[in-house]
Structures
1.
Amino acid sequence: MKAKRTARRVAVLAALLALASVLFIVESLLPPLLPMAPYVKIGLANAVVLFVIAVFGVRDGFIFILAKNLLTALITGGTFALAFNLAGSISAYLVMAGLYLALFPKISLLSVSVAGAAVNNIARTAVGVLLMEAKSLYLQLPVVSIFGACAGIIVGALTIFMVKYLPERLTKFG
């Protein structure tokens, strides 16, 4: 069944977009968690992305990630980072949406999040190798992937919390 595009639904998605963008921007202002890979962050905004996929559907989730990436690039002026962010976001979205559609609830949102984090790191590293012509970036991938799995667990737990405890008026549109 196709979801209705009501004003309330669009308003909630816009509020969630603002939340995800603020989380992304605040997290980008914090010092690097891994000095050898300063682009590595927990990715708290991804909890909002996974929440949108779970509650609003994969179509809205895709529009959401595109809007979040473009909005944050406009606000931060991070046009160079846009290639990294889009590559990571789109690849993570494809994996998370696919797993969610095919296997949820057989696998948890935690597993979906960890898989998305892993693919995000691989895609971002590949873009870095291509843009900077530095194959040595692949050497960071094992450490970054371990950190990404931990971040995926945090993001997945946060998403489960949001799905479980956000008021129904924010998630039900029937």
2.
Amino acid sequence: MSGSLASCSSVPETIVRQERGQREVFCGLTGIVWLHRKIQDAFFLVVGSRTCAHLIQSAAGVMIFAEPRFATAIIDERDLAGLADLDDELDRVVTRLIERRPDIRMLFLVGSCPSEVIKLDLSRAAQRLSKRMMPSVRVLSYSGSGIETTFTQGEDACLAALVADAPRASDQEPETLLVVGALADAVEDQFRRMFEQMGIKRLAFLPARHAAAMPAIGPNVKFLLAQPFLGDTAKALEAAGARHLPAAFPLGAEGTQLWMAAAAKAFGIRDNIFEETIANARRRAEASLQRYRSKLEGKSIFFFPDSQLEVPLARFLSRELGMVPVEIGTPYLHRRHLADELSLLPAGVSIVEGQDVERQLDRCREAAPDLSVCGLGLANPLEAEGFATKWSIELVFTPIQGFEQAGDLAELFARPLARRELLEV
């Protein structure tokens, strides 16, 4: 086993093993698939290769008559050979894009492996273009390159760019709760109603649904992370003076209650008001989970590293549905942000940070779990070997946060087991 052993400081009985080797993950460009739906007047222009374009279109399942809010500016042989001025070419592409799509209010230039390799300075290009196009269009940049990011880290890089560009709030302004992480609009609306009902009136979300609504950041802001993979975004927020509210993540009835309770405590909401606000939603969530507990209780589950959601998902499945985590693999373990989650895991559970895919496949085969959570690249081979799998990418595309989505989250894990039972009959 490559790597070293390290105990998590907040949970001495939980051992985290670090592993370095070949990985099986998507690059951060994949985040565009859900981000372009969230920010409704933004456009994502990937500066990359035809492979980048095929990846995003395949992941998004875009139909031929659709006009999505993302595209790829292809770096071809002429660009690589130095026969064209890449800055001039990029300016020309962006100008044509804005002329064709006058509804765009925010444009992201997204770096890829090819643009990183040839050292194309997209940050400088974004500053130049933004100066020319403001105030109608703001131009930002971030990297979704597989050299620098994996899967969900694309969202982290995008939101960190938004924080860097955000207006700064005065410390004289009233305190604001900021919920950080791209959430489905229906989930965002549910959280907004509940926070406002318990008495938190100044509330914002990052990213906002429109470019002009991006929140100001400053010492008056207290923020909750809705996703565990936003390490760079959290660092940028704290550098701007905002204060992080540590909490478990809002997956399942228990996780959602703990997450909302952290905000309630920080804003001085009385316990009885908090309990009264969440009571009905918590009761519905527990009832919806009960339908799946009999199908999942006692079943073993093995997590391959992919989305960084693995630790909160393992906590939810073990505590609320009785599943048994065999191994929890995660691309990166942010110990401070996950401290509350780690403290709720079964004692002695195996956590692996990073990946050596061949070694991990061997451990999976030896453990023979009832269900394996993995990326698309591993799912079909494992299914061919007789293992039931759950695509981890589906857990990012599907609304799973909050009380009302708890049953839907449980169903995502029950479904492949039910399918396997039907196939075995």
